[in-house]
Design brief:
Layout: H1 2-15, H2 20-26, H3 32-47, H4 54-70, H5 73-77, H6 79-90, H7 95-103, H8 109-122, H9 126-133, H10 143-157, H11 162-175, H12 180-196, H13 199-213, H14 219-232, H15 234-237, H16 239-246, H17 251-267, H18 271-283, H19 294-304, H20 310-318, H21 327-344, E1 377-378, E2 381-382, H22 390-400, H23 403-426
Antiparallel strand pairs: 1-2
Helix pairs in contact: 1-2, 2-3, 3-4, 3-6, 6-10, 7-8, 8-9, 9-10, 10-11, 10-12, 11-12, 12-13, 12-14, 13-14, 13-16, 14-17, 17-18, 17-19, 18-19, 19-20, 19-21, 20-21, 21-23
Protein name: Chemotaxis protein
């Protein structure tokens, strides 16, 4: 049965297009460090976009897990195998297996501290992990382990010490160029630089990721950070630099990025950026018919509803196919239509009966006298009791009697409603 399983794994490796040496290593019968080295080669293929290697990765992780569970303390305590065990843990391995294996080993306090730090990180105890790894210098460890240690340490302090985290992520890239570790480090750098407002760092890291790792199965996480960074760095970044980075993607990827930027920019009220991204998304429309994307029309309408002529906005939203929008985008469409309808509505006609009485004519009381009370009189004219907060009441009455002012006020209310709706959509 073991032979059959090994043959099956070797066959899977060959089908995945992996070199024969890796296929042999996958067959088992090797030491842990050899198997983990095969795992790293497979993961490097995945980082470069070879998704066919994903099944091989799962198989190798399962086989290494079994190997470590069965391994004796002498084999696992050998330095190369111990380091490989830690690399396996940080490569998607089973923390329970590592914890059980370490309990059987007689190792020095430094290695035990590193192992404890990694286990704490993998099991969701960041403070304990940070304490255990505080004195560890990734640059002094063997490169295959040091790259992972730098990545883990950087991830632990990214929120509190972003600058120090960037240094650690650069170390991870230096120790593991072209690997899944570098791919992960670049994703984190893009996120941090966008949050910190460092446009130069953001452009450099984004460009490197797009050139080398855009076909990675984790590229969607990069896209999240990339879009957020573009919106956050809108002013210092500039539209030309955004266009240069996105131009390195294929047409479908460009359209997706521009659509996401257009939506986020519209939500944040960045009219110029949203209009730019919407127009780019329309130009990058894919498919044989090159049809207008309803999302691009919607987001450009959101961006221009208060700047373009209402006729232009109305023409845009009239072309939108509601059935092709998501539920949240349909709500945005309804909001834009509500504003457009409000702006194009006929202004209210003043009520003639509300006009002021001619000079010298006695004013009618605003409030009827209370039954049984003696009304106050001045010059034979009935004086109504004063209303509460007369200045406020008068201001409101004056505002509603001006059709133009009333229309502006009502439109502002609609825009405030859109802002609230967009904020909820962003969440």
């Amino acid at each position: 049965m073991r032979l059959a399983a090994a043959v099956g794994v070797v066959g899977l490796a060959l089908v995945a297009g992996l070199p024969p040496a890796i296929a042999h290593a996958a067959g088992g019968g090797l030491q842990p460090f050899q198997m983990v080295r095969s795992l790293q080669l497979v993961q490097d293929r995945i980082a470069s976009g070879d998704h066919a290697a994903l099944p091989m990765q799962r198989k190798l992780l399962e086989m290494i897990d079994a190997k470590l569970r069965q391994g004796d303390s002498e084999e696992l305590g050998e330095p190369r195998n111990f380091r490989a065990m830690l690399v396996y843990a940080m490569s998607g391995g089973n923390p329970t297996t590592i914890e059980a294996a370490m309990a059987r080993l007689d190792i020095d306090s430094e290695n035990r501290g590193i192992g404890a730090g990694i286990l704490n990180y993998l099991t969701g105890r960041p403070k304990e992990a940070q304490t255990a790894l505080a004195a560890v210098d990734p640059m002094l460890a063997p490169p295959e382990l040091g790259a992972f240690l730098a990545l883990v340490k950087g991830s632990l302090i990214a929120l509190e010490q972003p600058r120090s985290a960037l240094t650690l992520f650069d170390q991870a890239r230096l120790l593991g160029p072209g690997t899944l570790v570098e791919e992960a480090a670049l994703r984190r750098i893009v996120d941090i630089c966008g949050t910190m407002g460092d446009a130069a760092c953001f452009v450099a890291a984004s460009s490197q990721y797009v050139r080398n790792y855009l076909r990675s199965p984790y590229a969607s996480q990069f896209a999240d950070s990339f879009v957020s960074g573009i919106v956050a760095l809108n002013a210092p970044l500039g539209l030309d630099r955004i266009e240069k980075i996105v131009a390195m993607m294929d047409a479908e990827q460009q359209q997706v990025i521009y659509l996401r930027v257009a939506r986020r920019a519209a939500i944040d009220g960045l009219t110029e950026l949203s209009a730019f991204a919407s127009e780019k998304a329309k130009r990058k429309a894919i498919g044989p018919r090159q049809e207008e994307d309803p999302r691009a029309l919607l987001y450009s309408s959101l961006a221009s509803v208060t700047s373009d002529s209402i006729e232009e906005v109305q023409a845009k939203i009239d072309r939108i196919d509601r059935s092709k929008l998501s539920d949240s985008d349909r709500r945005l469409l309804d909001a834009v239509r509500a504003v457009a309808a409000e702006v194009t509505a006929e202004p209210p006609v003043p009520n003639p009966s509300a006009a002021a009485s001619p000079a010298g004519e006695a004013a009618k009381p605003a409030v009827a006298p209370v039954a049984g009370a003696d009304p106050a009189r001045a010059g034979g004219v009935l004086v109504a009791a004063p209303r509460e907060s007369p200045v406020i009441e008068t201001a409101k009455a004056d505002e509603t009697t001006d059709p133009a002012t009333a229309l502006v006020a009502e439109t502002r209310k609609k825009l405030d409603a859109i802002d609230k709706l967009l904020g909820e959509a962003a969440k």
